[in-house]
Write a structure and sequence with these properties.
The chain contains 16 helices and 13 strands. By secondary structure, the protein is of the alpha/beta class. Strands 3-2-1-4-5-6-7 form a 7-stranded parallel beta sheet, sandwiched between helices. A 6-stranded parallel beta sheet has the order 10-9-8-11-12-13, with helices on both faces. Helix 13 links the parallel strand 12 and strand 13. Helix 1 crosses helix 16, helix 9 runs parallel beside helix 10 and helix 9 crosses helix 14.
């Protein structure tokens, strides 16, 4: 029996929650694995009820900095009390003095992205710039504290290795087709009505909370160009967020994007759906024509795998990680060029239909079961060696 302690206190939105929702059922299904799980209090009800998963009694304070110090100060005692043999730190930060061998799951490329730092300076976000620098310092130290660091893609593992000089193992995140397509209830009526109203339009989809590194502004600037290039056919861009303050997790201000919508006179073309539950996303993918992502930094990009599984053609920014995930199942454009983005979408929209079989086969390369099995191999290797955490 292998006993893991999974520190998921950093999961609050986006990829962190996607990871927990998909990994917990896989861990729970393994009779030789027992997992003690630490999550935020508001997630405890969603994470309870899994066989072989025990919830740790952890109540961290709010805020990333206070949570970090809570983990450093209080988590070692919880790990000892649980009797776990290996710690998996899933929130980009490791314990400096872990009582057991530690695997760090590193999944935040902002700390290594010069584009992100330039973007923050251009927006006058100097407090966020300083905050990211400090977190980056701690994240870099975490790679040195952990016994083994795992990244969700080879491209990001290479970035981390260049950043720290330490070897980083790439284990792809997965995709559970059965879980993703399980819901049969359909989309809520307000969303369905917005999709029906765009029935004759070219429907573009971008699944993301609003943030800066997903590069919304480049995508918005491409919409008027597409409108000009498709005479006789309207364009609709569906967003799973709202471009107004307070409507999205995190401290990113959507004011510049909202102003750009007004400036470009594309209010009718941009449809803000707000957050869509993960279990309903497959209905949304299949209701649209092209998936678009202009992100300028990424570590894995789960929506690309979801779009491929849904048979949706993809236009993606030219990033090594996007190439790694999609291969020939996507078309690519320079990440800061609205002109090339529009050309790429236009080529997809006016060419013969993409072969959904190629995309579906590509999505099948990613498996949460395989991810968990490879992670367990690393854990058992550390456990059998009796690795001692680095001072």
């Amino acid at each position: 029996m292998t006993h893991l302690f999974l520190n998921g206190l950093g999961a609050s939105a986006g990829a962190g929650l996607t990871y927990l929702y998909n990994v917990l059922p896989q861990l729970s299904a393994l009779p030789t694995v027992r997992t003690t799980l630490a999550v935020q209090p508001d997630l405890r009800s969603e994470c309870s009820g899994f066989p072989n998963i025990i919830l740790a009694d952890a109540s961290p304070p709010s805020g990333a900095a206070r949570r970090f110090w809570f983990e450093q100060r209080d988590l070692p005692a919880l790990i000892r009390k649980s009797g776990a043999e290996v710690l998996i730190s899933a929130g980009n930060f490791a314990l400096r003095s872990s009582p057991v061998p530690q695997i760090l799951l590193s999944g935040n490329s902002l700390y290594t992205s010069q584009d992100f730092y330039r973007d923050l300076r251009s927006r006058g976000e100097y407090r966020m710039w300083a905050d990211t620098r400090i977190k980056g310092f701690l994240a870099r130290g975490s790679l040195l504290w952990a016994d083994r660091t795992v990244a969700p893609s080879r491209a990001f593992a290479d970035d981390l290795r260049r950043w720290t000089g330490k070897e980083v193992l790439a284990i792809h995140h997965g995709f559970d087709r059965e879980l993703f397509f399980a819901d049969r209830s359909g989309l809520p009526e307000p969303i369905r009505q917005k999709l029906d109203a765009a029935k004759s339009c070219l429907k573009l989809l971008f699944v993301s909370h609003y943030n800066y590194y997903r590069n919304f502004e480049t995508l918005l600037r491409a919409i008027p160009l597409l409108r000009q290039s498709l005479p006789g056919r309207n364009v609709r861009l569906f967003l799973t967020c709202e471009l107004r303050s307070g409507a999205n997790p995190g401290a990113y201000s959507p004011d510049r994007a909202a102003a750009l919508v007004q400036q470009l006179k594309i209010r009718e073309e941009v449809v803000e759906l707000g957050g869509v539950p993960y279990r309903l996303l497959h209905h949304l993918y299949r209701a649209c024509d092209v998936y678009v992502t202009p992100a300028y930094t990424e570590t894995f990009a789960h929506p690309l795998v979801e779009a491929m599984a849904s048979g949706l053609p993809i236009a993606a920014s030219e990033l090594p990680v996007h190439r790694e995930v999609c291969g020939d199942a996507a078309q690519y454009f320079p990440r800061f060029s609205p002109e090339k983005l529009a050309e790429t979408v236009l080529a997809i929209a006016t060419s013969p239909a993409a072969n959904p079989i190629i995309a579906a086969e590509r999505s099948a390369d990613f498996s949460w079961r395989d991810h968990v099995q490879q992670l367990l191999e690393v854990a058992n290797s550390l456990r059998s060696r009796g690795a001692i955490p680095q001072p």
